[in-house]
Amino acid sequence: MYFKDREAAAYQLLEKLEKYRGKNPIVAGIPRGAMPMAKIIADGLGAELDAVLVHKIPHPENEEFAIGCVGISGNIHRLPYVEEFQISESYIQSAAKTQLETLKERQKKYGLGEPKMKDRIVIIVDDGIATGATTIGAISEVRSLGASKIILAAAVSATSAAREIKPLVDEFIVLDIPSGFFGVGQFFLSFPQVSDEEVIAMLHGENSAQV
Fold this sequence. Notes:
Rossmann fold, 5-stranded parallel sheet, 3-stranded antiparallel sheet, 34% helix
């Protein structure tokens, strides 16, 4: 399945999320790419828009390979396979502290307060899921914040990531899980970068540039 753009995918997801209208959900996008989709879904449901801030913790010998994530709460979310690499706890704590500083800067830049997800239905929105590391971290973060129900809504996911993530959420809504997956962008005819300025405009209800 190919999507014209993030907006087209968001409207398809919105149709599948209509049952949450009137149930006071929080729609939490994963910055930055998923925020345009989260904005459309939140507006469509008359829901509160938020962002779930997580940052990958890289493998000490490979910055592109995630071993876990840290959330804005300070909670560290280790991926299931991290024990196989016998990585020291001191490295994980140090790397998480560094990434948390980056998250705090982003929280301030976005004008976000402390997340208030306790006892709320939270719809996590992602544009696409490749390895699943960030998405799994986002789910763990939202659960640690006390959400009563977690729904994951995404346009597309790699098969292996979908298999790992589905058991972690209360509802898993993904429009396509193709067998041939090389990158999220391959499934969108238009897949531009999303800027911090656009995210800020979305979060604060301003008219942002068309994404």
